[in-house]
Amino acid sequence: MVRLEEVSKKYGPDTAVDSVSLDVHPGETMVVVGPSGCGKTTLLKLINRLIPLTSGRILINGRDTAGADPVLLRRTIGYVIQQIGLLPHLTVRDNITFVLELTGVTKDRRNARAEELIQTVGLPTDYLDKRPQHLSGGQQQRVGVARALAANPEVILMDEPFGALDPITRQQLQEVILDLQQRMRKTIIFVTHDIQEAFKLGGRVAIMRDGNLVAVGTAKQLINSDQPFIQQFLGPRAIFDVLATIPVLAALDATAPVLGLRSGNRPGSSRWEYALMTDAAGRFLGIVEKNVASQRGNNLRPEDIRPFTATLDAAASAASAIEKMLTSGNCWLPVVDGDKLAGVVTFETCANLLRIKEV
Amino acid sequence: MESITAQTLRFLHDKPGVLLDAFNSQLYLVLVSSLLTTVIGVSLGVAIHRLPGLRQPILKIAGTLYTIPILALFGLLIPLLGIGNFPALVALVIYGILPVLYNTRAGLADIDPAVIEAAQGMGACSWQLLRKVELPLAFPKIIAGIRTSVVMNISVATFAVFIGAGGLGTIILQGIRTSQDGMLLSGTLLVALTAVTAERGLGWLQTRATQAIKGKVD
């Protein structure tokens, strides 16, 4: 969809972007991450030609962007920047549809589009007649995202769009992007310096340093990299950032023994010292020592069941599973969905999430 | 001896046509020069904003012309352009340009660069950027420049009598020469009234323009 071929940008003797090649697939969120000054913002602006290339080629949908009129090219590419840059003299409505006005779309169609888009980004329609400066930073950037979608571009460039927002607002906006991607499957190139954000949003993450692209891959591939710079750049917390993006339900241990009162038992592997007890409806009751369970057979007594309070909600991430194991002193935890037992997560199954199976 | 108020009222009663003619020619000079000043000043302001190379030379020339005393400027223009409305208008435009030029440039330079980047990033061409983003946002400053320029032109146009272009200066000068205090005062008051009205009117417009950009606070 967007293909960079040995793209370079030089300012006199300084090289801002050094022969970067990158293939961004249709519908993919490619996150470009790196320390400040690594050239990631320059790279983004080369794509919509706000900055001219020194050498190399950029192809969008197979067509070399050098052959296009930069103004017309930009109208087909969404653009969201950290400073937001809404036009203060226009209403939210006219801000959202600014690009449509540039291309001469009629007022009726512009208004209809604005009403549709403001809901897409989760703002009430009565905000359309407000001025941007009367909105909070997070609301303004929602408008910024809506504006980037106005002309229904296939490609959207986002330059640290949530970098100036507080952590809670940033997370909300990240959810907006994830939600949009579920529905719209745009090709997004997203620049950030925040690894956590990169792993949360990115199908693949590209790491830049000193104008060079040093690695491209999924979060799992990157944290398994043996390159010292990548290890150093990602830092020890990156593992948790990856685990935070994976639901705990992906880490259930099928070998854990589950005993049901008056229902079928799942014996589980012999490694387990405890069995988990459920009632007929599948509700989690507690745990039973395995030797007790085997002694009693089908005649388990209520006092055999020990309550087990450290449970994990099924909506939690693998990172919170690890956290809870550490704080509760268990190397496994029952996962409950409402009051029903959904399964068991262990340290080992969480660690396995980080392994690359296909390599 | 008649009081000065009575003399003024008598002049206004006896010769309203003379005053009105002078006022009309003054108005003509001010309106035409202000229009030209605005067009040339804003254009030059945009030019020096877009082309940094032109900035210093144009600001220096405009600044130098601005410092020439009005009678000296007439003295320079008469040998070149003769007398009448045309050289008077040229002089007024030369004087009026600097505030408009300067404020236009300041208004454009003041715009948040993020707004410009976003507009360009969305595909505004150079002309759309100017018309839909830059000029609207710089408008309050531009109006402030026009306001300074118009008020100044009203006072400078009073001197146009020395270059044979009429205006309320004729009434004032004749009032002084012939010791007709009523005539003198009528001309003077009308000039002052015109200047104050223009100042207030454009001031109101400036406030409205600023509010329009900020949006009403809700």
The domain tally of chain A reads 2
The CATH architecture of chain B: Orthogonal Bundle
The level-1 CATH class of chain B: Mainly Alpha
Strand content of chain A: 25-35%
Helix content class of chain A: 25-40%
**Shape, principal axes of CA atoms of chain B:** elongated
N- to C-terminal distance of chain B: 62 Å
Look at the structure and name the CATH superfamily of the largest domain in chain A.
Answer: P-loop containing nucleotide triphosphate hydrolases
Structural class category of chain A: alpha/beta
Roughly how many Å apart are the termini of chain A?
A: 26 Å
Q: Which stretches of chain B are poorly predicted, pLDDT < 50 over at least 5 residues?
A: none
Q: What's the total count of β strands of chain A?
A: 16
Can you tell me the CATH architecture of the largest domain in chain A?
Answer: 3-Layer(aba) Sandwich
Write down the overall mean pLDDT of chain B. Answer: 91
Question: H/E order of the elements of chain B?
Answer: HHHHHHHHH
What count of helical segments of chain B does DSSP give?
9
What is the spatial order of strands in the main beta sheet of chain A?
A: 6-7-8-3-9-10
CATH superfamily heading of chain B: MetI-like
Describe the structure.
- The complex is a heterodimer of chains A (359) and B (218).
- By secondary structure, chain A is an alpha/beta fold.
- Chain A folds into two domains: 2-243, P-loop containing nucleotide triphosphate hydrolases (Rossmann fold, 3-Layer(aba) Sandwich), CATH 3.40.50; 248-353, CBS-domain.
- Chain A is 33% helix and 25% strand.
- Chain A has helices spanning 40-47, 70-75, 92-96, 98-102, 107-120, 137-149, 167-184, 195-201, 219-223, 228-234, 238-243, 290-296, 318-328, 347-353, and strands at 2-11, 14-24, 29-33, 55-60, 63-64, 77-81, 155-159, 187-192, 204-209, 212-217, 258-260, 274-278, 284-289, 312-313, 332-337, 340-346.
- In chain A, the strands form four sheets. A six-stranded mixed beta sheet of chain A has the order 6-7-8-3-9-10, sandwiched between helices.
- Chain A is elongated and about 80 Å long.
- The model of chain A has no long low-confidence stretch (mean pLDDT 90).
- Chain B has helices spanning 4-14, 16-50, 52-67, 70-81, 85-109, 113-121, 126-157, 168-177, 181-214.
- In chain B, helix 1 crosses helix 9, helix 7 runs antiparallel to helix 9 (181-214) and helix 8 packs antiparallel against helix 9 (181-214).
- Classes of the chains: A alpha/beta (359), B mainly alpha (218).
- The interface between A and B is medium-sized, with 30 and 25 residues.
